[in-house]
Amino acid sequence: MYKLLNIDGKAKRGEFHTTHGVIQTPVFMNVGTAAAIKGAVSTKDLEDVKCQVELSNTYHLHLRPGDEVIKKLGGLHQFMVWDKPILTDSGGFQVFSLTSLRKIKEEGVYFSSHIDGKKIFMGPEESMQIQSNLGSTIAMAFDECPPYPATREYMKSSVDRTTRWLERCKVELNRLNKLEDTINPNQLLFGINQGGTYEDMRIEHAKVISELDLPGYAIGGLAVGESHSEMYRILEAVVPHLPQEKPTYLMGVGTPENILEAVDRGVDFFDCVYPTRNGRHGHVYINQGKLNLFNAKFQLDDRPIEEGCQCPACQSYSRAYIRHLLKAKEMLGMRLCVLHNLYFYNTMMEEIREAIANNRYQEYKQAKIDGFNVKV
């Protein structure tokens, strides 16, 4: 399933073979929470910006339109017209962010919908059932996402529960994959490592979940308020204790610099809302950092967002025109910025893969980070 092609330091260049195609790693997954990338981006657009994997959200799709509805329409791939890999997160992060609306029990979590207040229960089995109905390529285990900061006592209890839930997820998904009417009988399960910023707890949990021999492993509970240096410290501690011959996924990360540093520590998979969220606010990434196209200095700037960029925005439109669209609140401005940012991220991942393959990742990483610090 996962083929390791080269290792440069700790950086890994691999291929992950799935029922919906081969994922070249390291990879950035483009976030489409409700089965669509925010910013009026179609699945045809995703191909144009070199997206390999689309990520959708179990919690949101369960509430609207309903996972049973999507199953009746042939599953998520058919529903959103996308034939490449899809990863669905388990809903755990969303459920646990509803602090005032939820109650954690051993069997799962009782919570109220943020849309209409309807009472809902979700546990490991329910999360697997929803994701099975969606038919995604990769299903994420249902875990407890603890708050930051958390006491050692709370974290220990939370991590132990996450382990028990992971075991239940594995049993349930194995059962669902064997059903006659399942959408994707080859659905893969990724487990999630937790433990906050407690290195020893992270390492112990990594060892325990590695014994379950899952297709892949994620590192959760980071990028939730801790400093970047703390995040890197935890990655350095925990990644060596996850199977090198399986993909490692750092959830919810991050900035281009975060990705470059995490790849350097052995991470394969990433996802983050930054490129789409920032794009919708007129903030665009270039190799010299980030531009705010609302700034007056771009009013007469007839250059593309970035010279030489082959994204759909840069091939045709100027900074001045996109700024005008943003100021006029025309949706096209937001859409062009999102397309550019996704293209920037996916292109950076291509460059990362090439650098690792040629054993020059350190040189590439340093040049890229140095470029981001140039004043424009």
TrEMBL record:
- Protein's pathway: tRNA modification; tRNA-queuosine biosynthesis
- Is Phosphoprotein there in the keyword field? no
User: Domain tRNA-guanine(15) transglycosylase-like: where?
Assistant: 10-369
Q: Which residues form the active site?
A: D89, D271
- Say which enzyme class the record assigns: transferase
Which of this chain's residues are annotated to bind Zn(2+)? C309, C311, C314, H340
Which Pfam families does the record match to this protein? Answer: TGT
Q: Where along this sequence does the record place binding of substrate?
A: D89, S90, G91, G92, F93, D143, Q194, G221
Catalyses which reaction(s): 7-aminomethyl-7-carbaguanine + guanosine(34) in tRNA = 7-aminomethyl-7-carbaguanosine(34) in tRNA + guanine
> Cross-referenced HAMAP family, in alphabetical order?
Q_tRNA_Tgt
Task: State the family named in the UniProt similarity comment for this chain.
Answer: Belongs to the queuine tRNA-ribosyltransferase family.
Physiological role: Catalyzes the base-exchange of a guanine (G) residue with the queuine precursor 7-aminomethyl-7-deazaguanine (PreQ1) at position 34 (anticodon wobble position) in tRNAs with GU(N) anticodons (tRNA-Asp, -Asn, -His and -Tyr). Catalysis occurs through a double-displacement mechanism. The nucleophile active site attacks the C1' of nucleotide 34 to detach the guanine base from the RNA, forming a covalent enzyme-RNA intermediate. The proton acceptor active site deprotonates the incoming PreQ1, allowing a nucleophilic attack on the C1' of the ribose to form the product.
Query: In its UniProt entry, what is this protein called?
Result: Queuine tRNA-ribosyltransferase
Taxonomic lineage per UniProt? Bacteria, Bacillati, Bacillota, Clostridia, Lachnospirales
